[in-house]
């Protein structure tokens, strides 16, 4: 049984939660070496890895398996996550602006207070994601599967939603100003074509 222990630090007056059975997994040495030597970790298995306060700007994670990967308070400007499996991954208080998520699986993943401005999600499977307090202004979401995505306090201003599927998505506090809607399936199943040329 996975029991959470509560350790009280009387000197600091801080409560710290820890689990003897679920310690975070840092970036594996072989993956870190590959990134240092080649600038990428193409096809790596990074399942359950947690990174924090790290810089992965421009790193190539194409085809990587990154299920339940946690990217916390880190930078991934221009990073390539193309065709990666990021199912149930979490991007928390991070920057992944101009990153490439084309063809990636982000099923049930989370973006929390994350800057993904001008990132590319062409053909990405993002169904069931939770996107809260994040910026996706100018993002390319062409043909992305955004069904059942919950957007809260999120910016999609100027985003390209051509051929995107937003069936059952929650958009109530989302800025869609100047977003491109062409052959876009809206949350109610209707098709928006107002920006088709």
Question: Can you walk me through this structure?
Answer:
It is a single chain. The chain has 197 residues and is mostly beta strands. The chain has a single domain (26-197), classed as Pectate Lyase C-like (3 Solenoid). It is built from one helix and twelve strands. The protein has one helix spanning 29-38, and strands at residues 4-9, 14-19, 50-52, 70-72, 90-92, 110-112, 130-132, 150-152, 154-155, 174-175, 184-185, 191-192. The strands form four sheets. It has a six-stranded parallel beta sheet with strand order 3-4-5-6-7-8, with no helix packed on it. The longest helix has 10 residues, at 29-38. The N and C termini lie far apart (58 Å). Residues 1-22 have low confidence and may be disordered.
Order of helices and strands: EEHEEEEEEEEEE
**Arithmetic mean pLDDT:** 89
Question: Mind telling me the C-alpha Rg?
Answer: 18 Å
CATH hierarchy: architecture:
3 Solenoid
* Count of discrete domains: 1
Strand content: 15-25%
| Largest sheet descriptor | 6 strands, parallel
Structural class: mainly beta
User: Helical percent range?
Assistant: under 10%
Q: What is the CATH C level class, in words?
A: Mainly Beta
Overall morphology: elongated
Distance between the termini: 58 Å
Record field, number of beta strands:
12
Strand order of the largest sheet: 3-4-5-6-7-8
């Amino acid at each position: 049984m996975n029991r959470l222990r509560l350790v009280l630090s009387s000197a600091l007056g801080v409560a710290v939660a820890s689990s003897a059975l679920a310690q975070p997994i840092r970036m594996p040495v072989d993956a870190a070496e590959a990134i240092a030597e080649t600038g990428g970790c193409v096809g790596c298995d990074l399942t359950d890895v947690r990174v924090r306060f790290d810089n992965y700007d421009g790193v190539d994670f194409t085809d990587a398996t990154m299920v339940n990967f946690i990217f916390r308070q880190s930078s991934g400007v221009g990073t390539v996550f193309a065709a990666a499996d990021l199912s149930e991954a979490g991007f928390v208080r991070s920057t992944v602006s101009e990153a490439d998520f084309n063809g990636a699986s982000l099923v049930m993943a989370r973006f929390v207070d994350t800057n993904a401005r001008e990132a590319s999600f062409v053909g990405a499977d993002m169904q069931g994601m939770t996107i809260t307090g994040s910026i996706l202004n100018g993002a390319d979401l062409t043909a992305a599967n955004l069904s059942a995505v919950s957007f809260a306090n999120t910016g999609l201003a100027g985003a390209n939603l051509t051929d995107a599927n937003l069936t059952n998505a929650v958009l109530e506090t989302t800025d869609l100003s100047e977003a491109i809607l062409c052959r876009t399936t809206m949350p109610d199943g209707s098709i928006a074509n107002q920006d088709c040329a």
